Amino acid sequence: MSVNRCPNPSCEYFNRVLPSNAKVCPMCGTALGNAIASVPPPPREILLAGVALPPPPVVETPASEPALDRTQYQPRASSVPATPIPPAADRIPLLKLVHSSGHEYNLFGEAGFIGRRSPSKQVPPEIDLSGIPGEDIISRHHARVAWDAAQTAYTIVDLSTNGIYLNGTLLTAGVQYRLVNGDSLQLGQENLVNFQVVVS
Prior knowledge:
This protein has strands at 4-5, 17-18, 46-48, 51-53, 95-99, 104-107, 111-115, 127-128, 143-148, 153-158, 164-166, 169-170, 176-179, 184-187, 193-199. It is mainly β. The chain starts with a strand and ends with a strand.
C-alpha cells in the first residue's frame, strides 16, 4: 500500500506518514507527488518443532481511509501581501517647466511655489529658479502652482510684482489660471525668463 510521506529533510514531518488524501505536507507545503511507498518485509517462515508454518496473513487498510489522521490539510497561503495599484484617474501627472536654455524644472507633489531661494528663509520654493539668467526679475514667491482635481489640470496664480504672461497674455494677480501642456510662460515683463509648460 502506498502512503504519503514528506520528502523534505528539513521539515518536522520528514518521512512521517501523512493522510493518504494529502497533496502537500501540512508543515512545509512540499508537494507529496513523489511519495515513497512503504514496502512490507518479505514473509518469513516460522519453524515450530521442525515444521514450517505459513506466513501470517497481511491485513491491508482500505485506501479510502487515512491510516493515522482524518484531518483535512489545506496549503498555506502566500504571506506576501498584494500591492494595490492606484487607478489611473488617481495619479497626478508631472508638471515640468522647460526653460528656453533647455533646463527642466519639475514640480514634485500636488502644489508648490515658483520663485527664488531667499537667504533669510531655510526652505526654498518647490521650483527654485535661483541662478538662471534674468533671475533678478523673479520674486521669492513669484507664483503658486497646484493640481486642481475638479479641472483635472494644473493651475497657476500670479503672486509677483513683475507679472506673468501665459501664452502672451498678462495674468491678473491673485486669479487662478489653468495650465495646459504646450503653454508658454513668461515671468516678468522684459521677456528674459521664458518656459514651455509640459504636463505628462
